[in-house]
Each structure stands twice: as structure tokens, then as C-alpha cells.
Design goal:
heterodimer; A: alpha/beta; Rossmann fold; two-stranded antiparallel sheet; 10 helices; about 10% strand; B: Rossmann fold; 2 domains; seven-stranded mixed β-sheet; five-stranded mixed β-sheet; 12 strands; about 40% helix
């Protein structure tokens, strides 16, 4: 592994990034097969953004995961880590055969990411609602240390029901943290149904704006829109929140319409249907 | 406006939170952190709208860039501190012990302990030192809670010099530290800043007939009790240990106390379950050590409201109270 720095906003073909997103979906299906349980649809909703962040946007140094000037990426919705692990392995943070140990006894890779076990994981998560605050701390650290790294935090729309998110939003606005970028993966569903039915958190963007953030709202599956939003977020003079409207289970037809694939397992026949649908796009 | 100006229009009988601070001489956190910050550029301090109560406003004036006030958002403060520590800082967070240990238990466990961050929790006004402010402001479960967290170091200061000594001795620990602190009005035990050794009690007085292992305000009460017991019939020679480190605990000192004095009384301003007494009992039981033993703690219920000194007298956390408990334990 060389000591290369992957620069921020490096050239990437949008079509290639779309294929990466579908590859992430396939890898997620493969790893759930090991655990016999997993969060398929929570990854599927943010797969395009994972691909854009890791293969285009973030400044990274896989050979030195704790490099002080790297951009940080915190996955507040830690249950989507299963989609992050294959990317980190492919970028060289850890051997690809670690993936085959996913969730097995002693594996570094659990359902939720552990920063002390997973190279490339910038902070542990699992308890929803903490990581935007942690990101505020990292953005403050960058300012104190006069470093130019950016801190990105992806949270879920269901996560917005946690009060601590709003404490963090208030603090980021108060401190004027232009080096902090949030992404709400607004897939519209939690475990028990539609977010708006369980606990309505709309209007999301207006709420963040009222806390002093700039915002924009995009289709989180439209790669051109994702790239444009990521670019714009880096230009903001305030903390910036991207509200990405997504579909939970996006990319596999029978998963897109129901919340029930938040956690589950695909039997062989259903798995074959899901894989074939994704593979068809990859082959196109 | 200076403090002197703020004081000017006041009747001498009046006070406010600003003018009362100089009276709390045992709240030494700010002085110690200001000294350390001079040579440790990575040191940052956070509080949640309590700088005027814990004296950290002094640090704020001297190091404004390295002081972060999160407003009344303690959980946010803990997680922000985690982000700072994960980026190379040593973060000192400070709030009332009840909020640090109970309101923020999950952030402390998941964001600080599990991830092993260099965050030091200055947990002041512990125990029942908030007196008549009541149960919401009392912290009598915090030793049990933090002791049960992996990677967590738990220390407890008995006076202002001990606070300084414990901040110094724990600054480089890899992982979070819970520093239990009183309200700042504690009578001095140490006349200078003591050198604490990681995981060791300090022997304040040697004795043959019994050992009192005390922490926090219990240390002064234990010393007073030792005086009382030495001067009243039948005279007793009592060893007094300051359990400044509760986790890791000084198992050697506990075993020696059992072997050499035959009786151990623990004293703490905490619920009887899971605190210092529980920790000492674990060492004794696991060592198969038969010794007369009692926990002198608060009852397993919520304290009455009263001025703190009245509460300490009521619950026996005074020299007299501890002396009585020790005589009861050893039957003479």
C-alpha cells in the first residue's frame, strides 16, 4: 500500500460512481448473508452518497487512517456501516478478507462501526443522535489547530427525533462552523413506518436554517445532484446541511415501498431477485 | 464590569454567585488547569453554563480560545468533548456530578469510555453537597455508574489540594477519567498538593485497631473520627486511608489493612450500593479475607433537604458519626 493522499474533490465519472453505489448494494447483500441479519435498506438509501464521498469528495490517506489532516466522515446512522466496510477495504484501509469475518466472533466489523477496530472509521456510532455533536467537537478542533480538514456527518431522518441532534445544531450555528457539513439521509422511514407518521420532523431544512445553517435539498439518488450539493456545501460560510431525499431500499424494487426491510434477511429466492436487478444495472 | 464593581452596591449581608466564589476555596480546578494549559497546548475546557459556579470563568478569561461553553446542553458537551479528544485534544468537561453521571451516562459510556477518549470529567458538587436543592442535584450513584464503565478511571478528591493533585496525576491516562469533586467548601486535609500514585490510596494516619478507608468529604470525617477515638475511652488507634483512586483500587492496601488492623470501615457520600464500600468488599470477598467490615454510606433512599452541613451531621458523615460507626463495628 502506498502512502498516497487521495485529494479532495478528485475527478470521478458520475457513471462510475453510480456503479460504485450498486456495488455497495451487492456487497451489503453479500455481508448480510454472513450475519443472517442486516440493515439492507438503510444502506441502499445512502449508497450513492457513500460512493460520492469516498470516491470523489473526501480527502483521505488510507495508509495512515489517523492522518490529522484527513477529512472526517462520521456515520451517525451507524447501522449503515455494512455499506461502508467494503469501501474502506477496497480503498486499502484493511484487508478485504476482513469482510468475510463480518459480525463473527472477534471480528473488527460489527453491525455498528468501532473507531478503535476499524481503520478508516473516524468515530464509533450506534446510539443514534450523538455523532453530530462529535462532529461539532471535531470541527472546533480543526479551528483550534488551524487545520483545514472538513467534518462530514451523515444522520438519518428518524435520528432527528433525538433531542441531542438539535443541541448540536444549535452549537454548530452558534460557533459558525463552516467546516462542518451534515447530510440527512431522509429516506422517510424508521423501523415502525413512515417518519412523518411515527414522529413528524418536517420541515427539516427550515429547522436547520433557523439554527443558523445553510441548507439545500436534493434527490439523494441523482448522482449529478449529489456531486453539486457536496460542492456547494464546501463553499458555505456556515455549517451546511444537505437534506437528501432518498428511498429506503432504493435499487431493489420489492424493498422500496416498505419500511420492513430496515432489518431483515433475504432467503435464496429473494436474494437472487435482488442481485439480478442490481446486476442488470451494473451490466448495462 | 469587575467583580469589585459588581460588589459595590451590595449590602455586606448580600451575596451573589459571583461574589460568593472566592469563598469556595476548595474549587481549585481553574487554577490547576490554567497552570497546565501553559505547557499543554492540547488542553481545552468545556462547561455547560456553570463557569460561574465551578470557577472556570477564570480559565475562560485567560484562555478564551480554549474554553467552550455549550450552554445548558450537557449531553452535547460530552459528545463535543469526544470529538475534540478524537482530534488530539485533552478535554476537561465540567458540570454538576448529577448531570455528568446520570443525565450523560450514555454519552460518557458510549462516546468517551467505549472509544477510550482523553476526556476528564470534572464532576463537581457530588454527593449531597447541593443540600436543599434536592435530589435532582444530588449525585449519590455516580461512583457505581462510572466504576462499571470499561476503560474508565474513577478518582475522588477530598479537598482543594487533592483536586489539583488528581488532575495532575491523571492528565496522561489513555482513556476517560471521572474526577469526583465536592462543592468547594471542604475543610483542608492536605496542606500542599499531594503526589498521587495511580491506583494507590494515601495513608494519612497509621493505626493498629481498625482502618477507615474514606473518600471525598469522608476523609476529613475519618481523620476527625481518628482523633476522637484516640482521645476517648477505650482509646483506639485507627489507620486512615484516602481512597483517592477508586478505580483502579488499591487492593494491596485493602488486604494489608485487613491483615494488620482486623477491621475496615468504608466512608463515602454515596448510596451504599456499588460505591467505595462495594469496591472494597469485592477485594475482601475475592481474597477470602475474613475481617470485620462495614460500609458507612448514605441510606438507600433519597436524602432529606437541608443545608449540606446539617445533612452531613444527620447522616453521620462527621467525625462523631464515623467514630460511632467504627465503635459499633468493632464492639468497643
Amino acid at each position: 500500500m502506498d502512502n498516497a493522499i487521495l485529494p479532495r474533490n478528485r475527478a470521478a465519472d458520475p457513471r462510475m460512481l453510480e456503479k460504485k453505489a450498486d456495488w455497495i448494494r451487492l456487497e451489503t447483500i453479500r455481508l448480510v448473508e454472513i450475519a443472517k441479519s442486516g440493515h439492507y435498506s438503510s444502506v441502499f438509501s445512502c449508497a450513492e452518497m457513500f460512493a460520492a464521498l469516498y470516491y470523489h469528495t473526501l480527502r483521505l490517506k488510507p495508509a495512515d487512517p489517523r492522518w490529522p489532516d484527513r477529512d472526517r466522515f462520521l456515520l451517525g446512522k451507524g447501522h449503515a456501516a455494512i455499506g461502508q466496510y467494503p469501501i474502506l477495504a477496497e480503498l486499502g484501509y484493511f484487508p478485504e478478507d476482513w469482510l468475510d469475518t463480518y459480525t463473527r466472533l472477534g471480528s473488527p466489523l460489527g453491525d455498528h462501526p468501532d473507531m478503535n477496530k476499524v481503520p478508516g472509521c473516524d468515530f464509533s456510532s450506534g446510539s443514534i443522535g450523538h455523532n453530530l455533536s462529535v462532529g461539532v467537537g471535531m470541527a472546533l478542533a480543526a479551528r483550534l489547530q488551524q487545520r483545514d480538514f472538513l467534518t462530514w456527518v451523515m444522520i438519518g431522518d428518524g435520528e432527528l427525533a433525538e433531542g441531542q441532534v438539535w443541541e448540536a445544531a444549535m452549537a454548530a450555528g452558534h460557533y459558525g462552523l463552516s467546516n462542518l457539513i451534515g447530510i440527512v439521509d431522509a429516506n422517510g422511514m424508521g423501523l415502525d413506518g413512515n417518519t412523518e407518521d411515527v414522529m413528524n420532523i418536517e420541515p427539516i431544512a427550515a429547522k436547520f436554517e433557523s439554527f443558523g445553517w445553510s441548507t439545500n435539498e436534493i434527490d439523494g439518488h441523482d448522482m449529478q445532484a449529489v456531486l453539486a450539493a457536496f460542492d456547494r456545501a464546501q463553499q458555505s460560510d456556515r455549517p451546511h446541511m444537505i437534506v437528501a431525499r432518498t428511498k429506503k431500499g432504493k435499487g431493489v424494487g420489492f424493498m422500496e415501498t416498505t419500511p420492513y426491510w430496515h432489518l431483515g434477511f433475504l432467503g435464496p429466492a429473494d436474494k437472487a431477485v435482488a442481485v439480478a436487478e442490481i446486476q442488470e444495472r451494473l451490466d448495462a | 464590569m469587575t467583580i469589585a464593581e459588581l460588589e459595590k452596591p451590595l449590602d455586606p449581608a448580600s451575596w451573589n454567585i459571583q461574589t460568593s466564589m472566592p469563598k469556595l476555596t476548595a474549587l481549585t480546578m481553574s487554577a490547576e488547569l490554567e497552570e497546565l494549559a501553559e505547557r499543554r497546548p492540547e488542553l481545552v475546557v468545556l462547561t455547560a453554563d456553570l463557569a460561574s459556579s465551578n470557577g472556570l470563568d477564570s480559565f475562560q478569561r485567560r484562555f478564551p480560545d480554549r474554553f467552550i461553553n455549550t450552554g445548558i446542553a450537557e449531553q452535547n458537551m460530552m459528545s463535543i468533548a469526544a470529538g475534540l479528544a478524537a482530534s488530539g485534544h485533552i478535554a476537561y468537561v465540567s458540570t454538576f456530578a448529577s448531570f455528568a453521571s446520570l443525565l450523560c451516562a450514555e454519552q460518557v459510556r458510549t462516546d468517551l469510555a467505549y472509544t477510550r477518549q482523553k476526556v476528564r470529567i470534572l464532576s463537581h458538587h457530588a454527593g449531597i453537597s447541593m443540600g436543599f436543592y434536592g435530589t435532582s442535584h444530588h449525585a449519590v450513584e455516580d461512583i457505581a455508574i462510572t466504576r462499571a464503565m470499561g476503560h474508565m478511571t474513577v478518582v475522588s478528591a477530598c479537598d482543594g489540594n487533592a483536586i489539583r493533585g488528581l488532575i495532575r496525576s491523571t492528565i496522561d491516562i489513555d482513556g476517560p477519567v471521572y474526577i469526583r469533586i465536592g462543592r468547594g467548601a471542604e475543610k483542608p486535609v492536605y496542606d500542599a498538593v499531594p503526589d498521587f500514585t495511580h491506583g494507590r490510596f494515601r495513608t494519612l494516619r497509621d493505626g493498629r485497631d481498625a482502618t477507615i478507608i474514606a473518600t471525598g468529604i469522608g476523609v476529613k470525617a475519618a481523620l476527625d473520627a481518628a482523633d476522637i477515638l484516640a482521645d476517648s475511652a477505650p482509646r483506639l488507634s485507627v489507620r486512615v486511608l484516602d481512597a483517592a483512586y477508586i478505580k483502579p483500587i488499591d487492593a494491596d492496601a485493602i488486604r494489608a489493612a485487613a491483615r494488620e488492623t482486623g477491621a475496615i470501615l468504608t466512608v463515602e457520600e454515596h448510596n451504599p450500593h456499588g460505591g467505595l464500600g462495594g469496591a472494597v468488599a469485592e477485594i475482601l470477598a475475592e481474597g477470602g479475607i475474613a475481617v470485620r467490615f462495614a460500609r458507612h454510606a448514605l441510606p438507600d433512599e433519597y436524602a432529606l433537604v437541608a443545608p449540606p452541613t446539617h445533612l452531613y451531621r444527620h447522616y453521620g458523615l462527621t467525625g462523631d458519626g464515623v467514630a460511632t460507626a467504627l465503635r459499633t463495628l468493632i464492639g468497643r
